[in-house]
Specification:
The complex is a heterodimer of chains A (about 600) and B (about 290).
Chain A (H helix, E strand, L loop, with lengths): L2 H6 L5 E9 L8 E8 L4 E5 L6 H8 L2 H4 L4 E8 L2 E2 L5 H4 L3 E4 L12 H12 L3 H14 L15 H13 L5 E5 L7 H18 L2 E5 L12 E6 L2 E6 L1 H11 L6 H9 L8 H10 L61 E11 L4 E12 L4 E5 L6 H8 L7 E6 L2 E4 L12 H4 L2 H10 L15 H13 L11 E5 L7 H17 L2 E5 L3 H7 L2 E6 L2 E7 H4 L9 H6 L7 H25 L7
Parallel strand pairs in A: 3-8, 3-9, 6-7, 7-8, 13-17, 13-18, 15-16, 16-17
Antiparallel strand pairs in A: 1-2, 1-4, 4-5, 9-10, 11-12, 11-14, 18-19
Chain B lengths: L12 H4 L2 H17 L3 H17 L3 H25 L6 E8 L3 E6 H27 L2 H8 L4 H30 L9 H25 L19 H20 L5 E2 L5 E2 L3 H12 L13
Antiparallel strand pairs in B: 1-2, 3-4
The chains are: A alpha/beta (about 600), B mainly alpha (about 290).
């Protein structure tokens, strides 16, 4: 098909018909009889659990499957009229752009300008056209200031934008994105989604976006396709999708939809704005109502006087002001004994050099975490979360100040780095190894090959490797720290991780998790420490921190704008309390009105 | 953490020059190091390479290359002193050693080692300046039309080296974070794991190259003529250095003998060649911009 025909949008952006695909030597197909069409200019969200086949479908749409991965394929895939199975990814490059999850391996040049220009050069565009296209895509993505930079000096968010620019520079009809926000902080993630929406609207690019954190992008989508065990389980509008999740798979729903489901409110909202509008139209404008006295939340997180359904929210309540770290009382089992802190940093400064000269990444942090505490460490990319944990674990030396951690086990962002042998028992020999496996509930897998375990099991095994020999006589670790453990995880696996963290904390371990995932933090943490540019900018109960802002706030908090209300369960209780209060108020008004008179 | 030898985009003359001009200039310094044995000229070539790197803003690369180069030079001096028994000025008699036999350390052998070591150090500094100042993308772009497959391999390698270095750093950190009760990780398992991971990474990078259209058989578009006002300067300096070196060689400027006694020529020709070579280090100099 000619370039002109592709530009004019004569064919669907993507047409998949009866696609079945087996990876080489796979026992079962990754995709089964998948049929899907994407119209020009459509924004499609691809939902599904981990390993459901989303990535494989995207890879088939850009020609990597089967041309790059091999395997057996049946059916038909066409991108802008080009046969993706007959042609390869190179042939499709002019019609489709692809952005993968890991930005590090999707750049192949040394400088940003060269990276963006490469596809045009390969396509045979002239120097003038190339220079103009690079300039325009850089302006569209707000990265002209990065053009002269080396790619290995960019942050994750910047690198992801550069990868997107390289995918868009040829003005493709279709752009495919595989969890592009999984390594980004909430600010960068939101920016990327709205940037995609803008490009979709202004450039007419069809977008197919695979994501786990649906609350982030559902409102931007025209349509949702759910992939279930390699098949299309659902294909329809965002609101219908939310209805489908109630019956088919509740782990795919969004927090706001869950809030409405629990509160019995219809229709389910596809985003914060939608939810607020629905609540407003229902006469229940909760923005400010919770702070104005109705449906107040007590320190335990339960709904206050008049609550119809009190939902406990243990340890996450609004227990007072948000404290600076130096004034924060240690909480947990052994509170008020500072010398027993599992993690104690005093006046901590850490200096790093990323090639552009030394820089203070941690700047005078004071922090104490008590045994039994569950703490989420949050902040934008580069705020110093990982550096703080790595310093506490002894990987980095403080430039000034002190940090001490009691029997600390740190699991870094890639659990696979901890697994170097072919048998679990060889990684964790003897009684210390068995005790560590018991601590993470993996003692049954001692004979297994780590490569045969699921992603969640591999993560727990890596944690056991870090824990081995660091448990006390009762098998209790001192401090367990995990750095961004929820990347690429579906909600089911996140729930498993929350349960594991809760179990370790219940035994007396302090659990600190650095994460960008506010919904996960709301489920897991009792306390949130928010870092910004190397200093602690907020430290307090998770309910207070995660309901007190916009980016670092849960979807429920943004919908209700009620201090201390961050989870769907808690929000639903608040809505129920408000409804109950309203009905009592109406009943009181009607009973006070003179009989036969006007109300 | 970035390697000190990694390319950093800057707007200096050396970075702005076309790869051919930059390579000619730095190559001329390396040519001098291989043509001459006289330590005065070698020191001048080393000073020129260091000065060029410093003016080009590659101070960290020069420092790292000097550390490595002088370390290597010291090793060469020690080995030469132990292995070569020639020379009349015996500084120490170390007796009979296995394999080496009678070992006499002579001043002449040490000076000969210094000359060889200086040559190695100059070469390393020049390569460090090249690595930190010459855009590999432009080099690969120049290479692609003439050798597409080699350019593809070089592109893969140039990307995989920093990725593999980052992976190795992560694996080392993970090994340090293993609990004391976990099996220790030796270099063997770590290397195997790194190799396996590198293969996965190579597949990812190769997939990205495919998606960028690399599989279409190389660039079909006209090469971009990026403007540079410094090319002439670097070509001219390179030509002057090579011409002076060859002329000096012909008139005996490389007068240097180590055995049986040391003779370092300091004739006017030697001094002139050394001066020209040292002055060539100023080529990347740029006058400060006018304030507006």
């Amino acid at each position: 098909m000619s370039e002109l025909a592709i530009r004019r949008g004569a064919a669907p952006a993507l047409a998949v018909d009866g696609l079945t695909y087996w990876y080489p030597r796979a026992a079962a197909p990754a995709l089964v009889d998948v049929s899907l069409g994407v119209a020009p200019g459509e924004f499609v969200l691809l939902a599904g659990r981990s390993a459901s086949g989303k990535s494989t479908l995207l890879r088939a749409a850009c020609g990597l499957v089967p041309h790059f991965h091999g395997g057996e394929i049946e059916g038909r895939v066409a991108v802008a009229g080009l046969d993706a199975i007959a042609g390869g990814p190179g042939e499709l490059a002019r019609a489709v752009g692809y952005v993968a999850q890991d930005p590090e391996t999707q750049v192949v040049s040394t400088t940003v300008a060269a990276e963006i220009e490469l596809p045009l050069e390969m396509r045979g565009d002239g120097p003038g056209d190339r220079a103009r296209a690079v300039e325009e895509v850089a302006l569209a993505l707000a990265i002209p200031h990065l053009l002269g930079r080396a790619v290995d000096t960019l942050s994750g968010g910047e690198l992801q934008r550069v990868a997107l620019a390289a995918a868009l520079v040829t003005r493709p009809r279709l752009v495919l994105l595989d969890e592009p926000t999984s390594q980004l902080d909430p600010v960068s993630g939101d920016e990327l989604i709205w940037l995609l929406r803008r490009l979709n609207e202004e450039w007419g690019v069809a977008v197919v976006l695979a994501e786990h954190r649906l609350e982030r992008c559902l409102a931007a989508a025209d349509r949702v396709v759910a992939v279930v065990a390699g098949r299309i389980g659902f294909d329809g509008g965002p609101r219908e999708f939310l209805g489908w999740t109630r019956e088919a798979d509740q782990t795919l729903t969004t927090p706001a939809a869950r809030l409405f489901s629990l509160a019995g409110i219809e229709p389910l909202p596809v985003g914060v704005r939608d939810a607020r509008r629905t609540l407003g139209e229902a006469g229940s404008s909760f923005a400010g109502s919770a702070t104005a006295g109705g449906g107040r939340v007590d320190s335990g997180g339960a709904v206050g006087a008049g609550a119809a359904t009190a939902v406990p929210h243990p340890g996450k309540g609004l227990s007072g002001e948000v404290s600076p770290p130096s004034r924060l009382p240690l909480r947990g089992r052994r509170r008020n004994r500072r010398d027993e802190a599992a993690l104690l940093a005093t006046g901590l400064w850490v200096e790093l050099d990323d090639g552009s000269g030394p820089r203070d990444v941690i700047r005078g942090i004071d922090l104490a975490v008590a045994p039994g505490e569950q703490v989420a460490l949050m902040g934008r990319n580069g705020a110093g979360k990982s550096t703080l944990l790595r310093t506490a674990a002894g990987l980095l030396e403080p430039a000034a100040g002190r940090v001490a951690a009691e029997r600390m086990a740190l699991l870094t962002q890639n659990p696979g780095d901890y697994l170097v042998r072919e048998r679990v028992g060889d990684e964790l020999p003897g009684e210390p190894g068995l005790a560590a496996l018991r601590a993470v509930g993996m003692e049954h897998a001692i004979e297994a090959d780590p490569r045969d375990l699921s992603g969640g099991e591999r993560q727990r095994l890596a944690l056991a490797v870090a824990l081995a020999g660091r448990l006390d006589g009762d098998g209790v670790p001192g401090l367990v720290a995990l750095d961004e453990p929820t990347r690429g995880m579906d909600r089911g696996r996140k729930d498993d991780l929350v349960a594991l963290a809760g179990r370790l904390a219940a035994q007396g371990a302090a659990v600190v998790i650095a994460t960008h995932d506010v919904e996960f933090a709301a489920e897991f943490a009792h306390r949130v420490v928010l870092l910004g540019d190397g200093v602690v900018i907020a430290d307090g109960p998770s309910a207070a921190i995660l309901s007190g802002g916009w980016y670092f706030a849960t979807e429920v908090a943004r919908v209700l704008d009620a201090p201390g209300v961050v989870t769907p369960e808690h929000g639903a209780a608040l809505l129920a309390a408000r409804a109950s209060e309203l009905s009592r108020h109406i009943w009181r008004l009607s009973s006070e009105a003179p009989r036969g008179g006007r109300p | 953490m970035r390697s000190p030898f990694a390319y950093i985009p800057r707007r200096g003359p050396l970075q702005s020059a076309r790869p051919g001009a930059a390579v000619s200039y730095l190559g001329a310094l390396v040519a001098v190091a291989f043509l001459y044995s006289n330590p005065v000229v070698l020191l001048a070539a080393g000073a020129a390479a260091c000065l060029a790197g410093r003016l080009a803003g590659a101070r960290a690369a020069v420092r790292a290359a000097l550390r490595l180069g002088l370390g290597l030079a010291f090793l060469i001096v020690v080995v030469n002193a132990l292995v070569v028994n020639r020379g009349e000025t015996v500084l120490a008699r170390l007796g009979d050693w296995p394999i080496l036999g009678q070992v006499d350390v002579t001043l002449e052998a040490i000076v000969a080692g210094v000359s060889i070591g200086l040559r190695a150090a100059v070469t390393m500094v020049a390569f460090a300046v090249y690595s930190a100042c010459v855009d590999p993308d432009r080099v690969l772009r120049a290479l692609r039309p003439v050798a597409a497959r080699s350019a593809l391999t070089a592109t893969l390698v140039s990307r995989l080296v920093p990725v593999a270095a980052a992976d190795a750093g992560r694996l080392r950190d993970a090994a340090r974070l293993r609990g004391p009760g976990a099996a220790a990780v030796g270099r063997g398992p770590l290397a195997r794991r790194l190799l396996a991971g590198s293969l996965d990474r190579a597949v990812d990078v190769a997939a990205t190259l495919e998606l960028r259209g690399y599989g279409l058989g190389g660039p079909r578009g006209e090469g971009r003529r990026e403007p540079s006002r410094y090319d002439t300067r670097f070509y001219a300096v390179a030509a002057a250095v090579v011409a002076a070196a060859i002329a000096g060689k012909l008139v005996g400027a490389d007068d240097f003998r180590t055995y049986p006694t040391i003779q370092v020529g300091l004739a006017p020709a030697t001094v002139a060649v050394a001066a020209i070579v040292a002055a060539s280090g100023l080529a990347p100099w740029r006058r400060g911009g006018r304030r507006v």
